[in-house]
Amino acid sequence: MPGFIKSVLIASTVAAGTVGSVAAIGTGFDVSFPGGTEHVADRGPSVVRMAPIAVHIGGWTLKKKKNEDKVVIVSIAIDVPNGDARDAVCRLMPRLVSAVNGEVSRNVLYQDTWKEALTGSLGQRLTGRFNRALGRTLINDVRLQAHGSKAEAPPPTCAAAV
Description:
- The chain is of the alpha+beta class.
- It is built from 5 helices and 4 strands.
- Strands 1, 2, 3 and 4 form a 4-stranded antiparallel β-sheet that branches.
- Helix 3 (93-109) runs antiparallel to helix 5 (122-134).
- It is rod-shaped and about 100 Å long.
- The chain starts with a helix and ends in a 15-residue tail after the last strand.
């Protein structure tokens, strides 16, 4: 019988040590569950700024435009209604960059200069195209601005994807 008691004491000590160490490690992590009551406050309307995009202008035409650069640096500001929309836009930013390249380069083909191409209804068309690319209406407005170089353009507001 003394061997049995000794085995029970050793097993109890090992079990208590294991449970205690798991509990101690668990308190070091902040774990939240999707169904929890904790909710991050909505940040309200904000502006998401895309990284500057180099758009090739001119496209594939036989008629060369005079005194035009071959690449224009475009900075885009996107108005979103809330923090959830901001997170979705930042997460799906590669889709939006693709839409910008297609829409801006196509619009430049039908204008006399690239400056005219960035004005007018291009912002409205990009708003619709962005919302279609995202699969739902998340964007209220899009504003474009041309810059001489990427260094002159304002920095992006979304964190870089890792």
